[in-house]
């Protein structure tokens, strides 16, 4: 359900300071080309991993909402896929539609670029920003810039490209930078009741997070070998009572690839790679879900799925 369709959550019991303060709540879109660190930034802002990260481009494929409540302010972050400028497949059209939808109806946009760099891909995302919606330039990966003095002329150039409300040179891996970004974002959110309970971190289901975790391990363990047109479908997500573990979750998921050669790549020699994908997924999900997890993985070939509108939708893309 879209949070805008829900009844306002109303004041939360979060101590006298929060109760006395006027609540603020708003939506902040995190946008940028693939691989500029949007998902890493979202996870740092939420304080827990909810969006998958990988060096592989086009890792994030869905609009993922992360929620963080600090004091009287509730920040609702939307991590979007990187805007796709290559490959005119149905999957890419779906991803770009998600980005376009996210930037249109928000209170603030965080436009993420690599500090000191601006490419054609960045320019295409910048062209999507809507007039009237304040945008903050997040110059990410500052820790990788060796000559800080060169940033000043670059920032002036960026201001000429777009009337950014503020500039934030930072690293998503630096807690102090994240704290500073919260202080900046809070000013732009409207005074209104919170949409979510104080302790909620995401509006995505555990089943969705399970599928995303499998996909992350798939991309991390296959590297550049496996084309980005691979996906994961969760066939079963069942919770069973367990006197021994308290919580026991059974998951069955299918990794979908486009060719037999890709299937062999995912399975690996004597099934070792698929086994490792399953093991790393299980370990991470046990921490994320606070449960004992049993997971089964299968690999199936579906030739041309990424260019088939109906199949793209059937696999959960908007």
Structure, described:
With 318 residues, the chain is of the alpha/beta class. It has two domains: 3-186, Rossmann fold; 206-314, 2-Layer Sandwich (GMP Synthetase, Chain A, domain 3). The chain is built from ten helices and nine strands. The strands form two sheets. The protein has a six-stranded mixed beta sheet, sandwiched between helices. Strands 7-8-9 form a three-stranded mixed beta sheet. The radius of gyration is 20 Å and the shape is globular. It starts with 14 loop residues before the first helix and ends with a helix. The model is unreliable at 1-20, 54-62, 82-96 and 314-318 (pLDDT under 50).
Short description:
This protein is an alpha/beta fold. 34% of the residues lie in helices and 23% in strands. Residues 58-62 are annotated as: G2.
């Amino acid at each position: 359900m879209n949070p805008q369709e829900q009844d306002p959550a109303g004041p939360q019991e979060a101590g006298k300071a929060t109760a006395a303060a006027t609540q603020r709540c708003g939506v902040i879109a995190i946008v940028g080309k693939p691989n500029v660190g949007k998902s890493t930034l979202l996870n740092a802002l939420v304080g827990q991993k909810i969006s998958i990260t990988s060096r592989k481009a086009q890792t994030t494929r869905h609009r993922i909402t992360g929620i963080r409540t600090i004091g009287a302010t509730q920040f609702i972050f939307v991590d979007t896929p990187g805007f796709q400028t290559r490959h005119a497949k149905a999957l890419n059209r779906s991803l770009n539609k998600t980005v376009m939808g996210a930037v249109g109806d928000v209170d603030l946009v965080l436009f993420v670029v690599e500090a000191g760099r601006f490419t054609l891909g960045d320019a295409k995302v910048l062209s999507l920003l809507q007039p009237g919606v304040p945008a903050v330039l997040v110059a990410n990966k500052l820790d990788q810039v060796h000559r800080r003095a060169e940033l000043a002329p670059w920032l002036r150039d960026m201001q000429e490209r777009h009337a950014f409300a503020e500039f934030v040179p930072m690293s998503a891996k630096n807690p102090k930078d994240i704290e500073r970004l919260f202080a900046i974002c809070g000013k732009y959110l409207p005074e209104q009741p919170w949409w979510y309970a104080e302790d909620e971190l995401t509006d995505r289901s555990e089943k969705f997070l399970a599928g995303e975790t499998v996909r992350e391990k798939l991309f991390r363990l296959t590297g550049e070998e496996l084309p980005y047109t691979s996906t994961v479908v969760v066939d079963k997500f069942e919770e069973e009572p367990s006197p021994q573990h308290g919580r026991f979750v059974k998951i069955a998921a299918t990794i979908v690839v486009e060719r037999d050669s890709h299937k062999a790549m995912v399975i690996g020699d004597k099934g070792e790679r698929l086994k490792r994908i399953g093991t790393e997924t299980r370990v991470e999900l046990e921490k994320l879900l606070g449960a004992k997890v049993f997971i089964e993985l299968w690999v199936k070939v579906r030739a041309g799925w990424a260019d088939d509108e109906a199949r793209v939708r059937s696999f959960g893309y908007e």
